[in-house]
Amino acid sequence: MWPRSAVTSHYHKTAFPENAGKNSKFVLVFGDSHLRSLVDGYVQMPEGDLRFGYSSTPGAYAAVLHKEVLNETLPEEPDLVCLIAPGNNLSNNTIQQAGKEFASLICSAQGRWNKVVVIYFPNRLTVEFPYQDMLRQEYHRVAASMNVRYLSTVDHFPARSSDLWCGDGVHLSDDHGMPIFAQLIWCAAYYQLNIPQGIKTTLLHPDVHSAE
Question: Could you tell me the superkingdom of the organism this chain comes from (predicted)?
């Protein structure tokens, strides 16, 4: 059982690297329940010259994450913040309203930190894909209008590979789906820190292949 946030009353947990101040770049990953396995250590990030910290708020939609971003206490200033675009907005409001809340979330992150990148959440097997595509396009439009790089992970999680998901059809499985997602987050962070925006990149860590 995770503790509840004093800010939003949602379950909320953070995990930060122990070697604060080490001569490597610190990446903060902010999101909802898709980060649970990373926060609890069941899934590990690939090795490399990056240190990752996590802030996870299960069940959070963009307006909730907006409040958590504004109030999160960190052990050090991150070199980059990765926002996992919230899929919970699929069920709580319209596409247009979700876009407005998402813009506020990005704005709050940009107001606190210099570098921000958005990573789109993997599709849910429980929601019609065309509707998820509409939300993805709206999030992409919002991020582009705010000059924030937006990276999609959807192509790496084909619906026919059901072992990538847990039994609920929403969350990725710890043994198959989440290791790929972790690799994609690592790549997104590396590209954002090392490759100028505007250059096309392939979101895939060299040691892992997406499901085929």
Answer: Eukaryota
Does the structure show a pLDDT above 90 at 175?
yes
Check pLDDT > 60 for residue 205.
Answer: no
Q: Is residue 135 within 8 Å of 88, Cβ to Cβ?
A: no
pTM over 0.85: yes
Question: What is the C-alpha to C-alpha distance for residues 173 and 129, in angstroms, rounded to an integer?
Answer: 19
User: Measuring CA to CA, which residue among 79, 140, 105, 120 is closest to residue 203?
Assistant: 120
Q: Provide the pLDDT for residue 189.
A: 95
